Amino acid sequence: MRMREFLVPDGDRWILLCWLLLCLSSLAVLWSVTEPIRGPYLDLDPGVVKSVFYRQVVWVLVGLMALLVAARIRLRTLENLAVPTMLALVALLTLLLVLGPSISGSRRWFLLGPIRMQPAEFAKITFILAVARILGGNQDQGPRPMLVIGTLGLMLVHVFLVMREPDLGTSLVFLAVWIGMVFWYGVPGILLLGAGSAALSAVIMFISESVLSRQPWPWGLYLLLLIGILYLVPIGIPARIFMLLINVASGLGIPFLWEKLRGYQQERILTFFDPMRDQFGSGYQAIQSKVAIGSGGVFGTHYLQGTQKGLAFLPERHTDFIFSVVGEELGLVGCVFLLMLFLVIIMRGITIAGAARRSFWRYAAVGIVAYFTFHVFVNVSITTGLLPVTGLPLPGLSYGGSNMVTSSFLLGVLLNISSRTFDT
Amino acid sequence: MPGRELEFRKQIFRGVVVLLFMLLAGDLFWMTVPRSRYYRGLALENRQVRFRVRAPRGRVLDRRGVLLADNTFIADITLSAREYAAGRCDSTVARLCSWFGLEEDAVQARLDAQQERGAGRLTLVANADLAGVVLVEERRRELPGVRVETRPRRRYVQGPLFAHLIGYVGQIRDEEIGSGNGDLDYRSGDMIGRQGIERAFEAPLRGRCGIKLEEVNAAGHRVGRSPVWLEEVVPGRDIRLTLDLQLQQALAEAIGPRVACGVAISCRTGEILAAYSNPTFDPNLLTVPISQADWQLLIDDPRKPFFNRVLQATYPPASLYKPIVSLAALGAGVVGRDTELEPCLGGWQLGNRYFRCWKSSGHGRIDHLDALVHSCDTYFYQLALKLDIDTLAKAARAFGLGAVRSGIFSEEVPGLVPDRKWYDEHFGPGRWSRGVVLNNAIGQGELLVTPLQMAIVAGRLAVGEGLPTPTFVAGQQRTDPLPPLGFSALDLAWERKALREVVVRGTGQNAALPDVPVAGKTGTAQNPHGEDHAWFMCFAPADAPEVALAVIVENAGHGGSEAAPVARQWLEAYFHGSARESTLEPLKPTGEVFP
Q: Which residues does chain A have within 8 Å of residue B218's beta carbon, measured at their own beta carbons?
């Protein structure tokens, strides 16, 4: 194979272009974050060391290597390796809970010399591929509920292990990816409707109980409304009973689940509904992030000029809240530009998933699309205050090796699939 | 999977993604366009902090411009209340506690208490020494929210010498904030004058606080180069006293360790030249938080070191009152300047009471002049019987007794000049005998005066109406002039002659100077609680008075033997020292002094 062929992978050129632009944006933003602020101020220590930028350069290069490898590897090999590597990662995650070093109260990383390796990130790859392998196994025989339930078990194991680290945000990735893939697999609409309404019921019950401090009347109202709709909508009696039961169960189950959450998790969720509740604690991040983005306006304060970032009001500004720096310095224009890049990747991904010839490829592509959709939506929503604060990186932009390699590798797989779908 | 179903799911998937992204875009648009102004305001608030800057307190100078009180700095190690509330300071507090050897629990409790009061910055270590400040400054980066804050500390250059007169400043108490301090804006931790000049001239000394905006980072460290001043600092104005450091020192030396006080006043300008009360205290101890034990020691001292005897102590004037009685009698025409009355046989019988003369063997036949010179009580008992109590009281008030005289010190007390009305109110109409007049005539009984008042009496005996209203501060405007004397110039001149004779051949010989003619009067105030108080008032030179002085030594005995030597020592210092020249002309109010 000639060098040029290796360096320019086949497959969707739009995806590759957008990903490269995202990686370059990441470097540009990290350079700004690690620059001392100037202008009317004294040269001021930015609080995030310059080496973060240089490390990220390395991580981008390592990520691109992973992308090239994933784009070139035989997909059959991936398919065969999917389940064993997934099991290996589950074992690793279990091991992490037992042996992992505790860093500020959580066991998320293995220390490999100077590098922190986060197994949960790589488990996303193996999980997507393994679920794709399982769902894709019985091509053209119609959906089989047992397979869905099997992958559900697999998903719950991942969610459980990662939640124990504890890392709520990452654990929810598995849930989101699973929902996307199972939806594509063809779950009956009534199930999805049921799950959706059950989630709504849970949220309303939660608001009734915790935020409004034990006034369950909004939930009662919701239940009455549901009964009315079920009466009017022409569906079978069993479906109606199923809908009613699942709503009641999730609504009544939420207080029990709430008790199971850790104190800091409860606090964050409560703070989400009322950020001023803890202005200097977990609400602080949400407020400062909104201030940064909002004060940026349409065109931002211009590159290197952000004050909230520079004066360190913005926490985690090089990792989970990097989007807020974009908002402050580059404004609405910069934000929308980045979102467009992600949207292109996701839309192309859906097209690939729809066109892929083999079912393993299809489900893998859907899983990857769901992965990116969830990461982008949740991360950006956290920075704008739409969702409660939970640690989740923005793929391609946030500083960090594990996620950079994971995201790049997954995109490589997507490119690989697309090259085999459209070229031949 | 059928192609139609696949296409349907693809559309749903796309629809969900587009919906989610539109939600994000819509939210971002909402924040950055219609709500941007709001967030911009918050961003500005984030990094701009209003700092209140205390004005430097005005200095206090003596009449020749010698520094008596100014400001130095003390450094506090403080913590951002915001950071502390967020719980981000626990390890910082622990480290600082170990460096400064503090009990962590106690510090924690103190910080919590300050937090509760709503302080913006919490004081961790007050009055840190230089080594501590350097330690913290060097590690500032590792100590988020920690700042070394300097605040001015009052320094009393002469320490105890002017303690009573200048007073001292102390931290304002929480209950004093915002109540009755006019438009002066006090905050917790501010200093306020507690006594003397510091209290009397609080407003001009204090000046006005400024407010500036400064850029800070998230840890609360200042980063701005040039602050924006919203309100300029108005520095406190200097106060120039009429007192002279040398003369004050001379008075303190003359008094020595005695429980005593003295006031000297310039007869030409009415300016107070020295005013010293002993025992005294070091006001520098009170400008930093003083330990409870030290404080208790000071206030439990039976000799009352905080008590400014010049203004706050009242004594019977004793024989110092005799010139006033004499003038009252001359003014009323009941005796002449050379009238002899019944001879002194050691006392006077009135009804069933025998009023003793201090000289139990008696003065024999004695005329008006000699009665003053030898301070014969019997003669003055007889004078009193020719006068009524209201005539005496009127004469006393004409000299300025019975009212506050400083015009500025709120701690000053007026003393008491009893009259018929007063006796009727306190003893009941007709329930008091003529005997009280006899007691009054020798300055005993219910009469009470302050040393300051007696210095004014001495000054008015020296120069009559010519004595300007006394002042303590250069340029001090008096709205309450001394009352008119209303005695004839001839009588006053004769009185002056008598007081000169007191020092030449009478009871005040211990005050005599070889080269300067001194005139004065001794007094021995009866003290039911112990040894008598020794009084002496004088002026000199007797023929052209420049300076008048009143001295009282508590529980010392006779004025002639105990108080007069103190006066002489001070007069000696006055006439032979370099300060005299500057006292002859009144101080001109210059820019630096009180308006």
A: 311-313
